[in-house]
From TrEMBL:
InterPro entries: cNMP-bd_dom, cNMP-bd_dom_sf, Env_Response_Regulators, RmlC-like_jellyroll. This is CRP-like cAMP-binding protein. Residues 15-132 form the Cyclic nucleotide-binding domain. Gene3D superfamilies: Jelly Rolls. GO terms for molecular function: DNA-binding transcription factor activity. One of its GO terms (cellular component) is cytosol. It comes from Allorhizobium borbori. It holds the Pfam family cNMP_binding.
Amino acid sequence: MALADDISVLSQAPVFSSLSGDALRLVAFGAEKKVLSAGQVLFKEGAPAESAYIVIAGRVAIYASGSSEPESFAGPGALLSELALITRVERKFTAVAEGDLEVIRIARALFRRLIEEYPQVARVVEDRIRENIARLAEEATAMQPRFA
């Protein structure tokens, strides 16, 4: 896949969608591509997360703790383990290649460099965190009657 194709895939991920071409090129140059075959594990739940992944081609099966059936699937453009870009966390699920899979691995160190060179990225991350917290609060509030 050409650099332009990688940049196109990166620009589909919400955290990167508003970045300039130069910022996207920095990520594309610094990121690592991985190719997996059907059944190969991309990462396991509970493992330290030092990078995020964007699916280029194929589909990833997402397994929740102890489940033998996938909880969901992620396809091209999906960003997995976004929080790992900004802080030390453990993987919250296991990700397995459903078929042939190609991903871009974005290390936390590369993301920090991106923020240093393009400070506006920090605002995008802050906005995404705020949106995620608001969504979680809404979901928790909606579940409150179940526990009353």
